[in-house]
Amino acid sequence: MARTRGQAAAQKGFASPAPKAQEPQGIQLRKGASQRAESNRRIRPSAIRETPSQQDPPALQSKGRKRKQRIEPGAARERRGPKRQPISPTRPAGDTIGNWPSQTVSTMNRLLARKKSTLSRKRSNSDISKTPSDQKPREEKSAQYRDQRYETLLQFNGSYMTKAPGGLASASQDLCRSLLENPQPVPGDTLFQDDIFETTCEKIRNKNEARVIQDISRLIVPSAESLATFGAKHLDILIESVNEGWSNSMPLTGTRPQPDYSVGFRREAFTKDQLAKLSPCIGDLIAGDASPVMATYYMYFPFLTCEVKCGTAALDIADRQNAHSMTLAVRAIVDLFRAVKREDEVNRKILAFSISHDNTSVRIYGHYPVIAGNDTKYYRHPIHKFDFTALDGKDKWTAYRFTKNVYDIWMPEHFKNICSAIDQLPLELDVDAPPLSDTTTGLSQDLGGLMQSDAGSVSQDSQSSNARQQGRTPDTSFTVPGKRRKG
Fold first, then answer.
1. pLDDT tens-digit readout, 412-465
2. How far apart, in whole angstroms, are the C-alpha atoms of residue 446 and residue 424?
3. What's the predicted TM-score (pTM) here?
4. Shortest CA distance to 216 belongs to which of 225, 207, 228?
5. What gap in Å lies between CA 324 and CA 307, rounded to an integer?
6. Alpha-carbon distance 483 to 480, whole Å?
7. Backbone angles phi, psi at 159, to 5 degrees
8. Are 454 and 150 in contact (CB under 8 A)?
9. Nearest Cα residue to 155 out of 327, 313, 373, 319
10. CA distance 107 to 175
11. Which parts of the sequence are annotated with region: Disordered (predicted)?
12. What are the residue ranges spanned by the domains of the chain?
């Protein structure tokens, strides 16, 4: 009988009640359905305001069953708990970590190394015994930088090849003047000595970059390691790279920096405790994890780059390369000081230098950040531009003296500040870094694709030429924004 009544009730539009011991009780439930429906309509608006997108469909509730969730608050909390639980925000990539709600997690995440993909790790391990792929042919490594639109690509990523509104801090302006004017001894028996200087300049006229580097580059930007070898022991903490890709750096535009010459700090410059605190920022050196504080696997906190070019408008290309490299260098210092809440100490202060030169001209720049809350933009300050062949070589040693003053005057204080900030880092960082991913915006990806399309023929020609000359497969690690090789 109960089954028959239930079927009849369903046909009349009523939900079938649970079996009851007595018939009158079931009849009373059906008679009260309309009153409860009216009550539900009065209650439902408040529930909608609390969880508008989480309503329970009315058809799933039995009109003939008591709503136990209204009588048992504990059960209601248990039922609604998963629905009211906030959903974790999607983890941002690269420099957008600053959008996380927690300021501490944000600043620390900026400083952490990014893991290299498993595929890239396997590729790196298989290539250990082969010719290293961290050196691209000279034509290929500068292909994207030849396009004037690369400056726009840098701007999309917060780097500007101009002075900042408001300029430098006054202390940095005074520093630039002292670095230019402070006297330094110059070497003898070189191609720049007075009696053969004019002959030297004539012999490298119309020559390629490799010849210019061989003959005069170290007379414009002296080697830090060579100076240390000749007795400048305070430079033993420095290490340099020559035409080596910054494979352990954290990309800005997707194009990996590969400066003709760069200087940073060697691992042995830091204490064991400092290296322990930096370890989450470094990651796996051998696997090639991307680190915000490293250039190559052996260079920490780079602060000087030099690019050499020849030909029409070539120094503009060198300037773009230097701007990219030194943006990474300045960003490393900003992220470190931000992590220990000392970012005001580096705001609008020069944190890195770059030099662009060809066979006649030199351009010297200082690179600095402008920090406004969580936002950081990067700018450059033109320190000096000159033709070192003019006036019988009057300024031929200007860049050399400037660079030595950077090593002797500016670098020791810079290193002291870095160590001071590292000492304030916690021994263990209890946050997870996001995986390495493309940090460029959609606009920069589109621009990078256009630039790569324009430079494609140059890359292919240089690869095939390099393969013929060296008898090996050309380097295929050259990438564009949005499709770069991890690490």
1. 999 999 999 999 998 876 555 554 444 444 444 445 554 555 545 444 444 444
2. 41
3. 0.68
4. 207
5. 12
6. 6
7. -115, 125
8. no
9. 327
10. 29
11. 1-102, 114-146, 438-487
12. 1-34+64-80, 144-470
